[in-house]
Amino acid sequence: MFQLGNTIVSEEILENDFVCNLNACKGACCVGGEYGAPVEDSETDILMNTYEKVKSYLRPEGIKAIEEQGTFVKGEDGEWETPLVNNSECAYVIFSDDGIAKCGIEAAWEDGVTKWRKPISCHLYPVRTRAYSEFTAVNYHKWEICDPACSLGKELKVPIYKFVKDALIRKFGKKWYEELEEVAIGHAKP
User: Fold this and answer.
1) 136-140 and 7-9 as β-strands: parallel, antiparallel, unpaired?
2) Family per UniProt (predicted)?
């Protein structure tokens, strides 16, 4: 772990490789697990205000879940998260013709319908952040469903912090990311 501004960063995001391999995993992170995607306090209003714009991108069962549960819900840990369809996939998930799970919010963003891409937790994955009173922890979340992404990342030699560059800049800013790159260069030296 090392400190970067008001963040404590796990060296694992420098040492491990990762590139999503949707052909292998089919977007399992959007449909697996027992909880919705984490939603930051600052994103709750955005989700409420964006819903009508993205609704036409969503599946009927996702719309039903959102309209019954809300655009976000309080998880068992007391944190905000996206609602689920039948305690399974994220209510915002859509599926491509070849069965790959994707984000309906991001599809609307790609089409220019909304300016908001998706929850930062989804954009950052496999990096997870947790805010504490004095600092924010930046960690690598390991999940066996992402083994194909680890293999592809290793094959392509793409460390996690480079794979999620845009998301890290979105979360912490360009200056923070440039400092992270400097740490990574120093960390790579023998």
Assistant:
1) parallel
2) Belongs to the Rv0495c family.
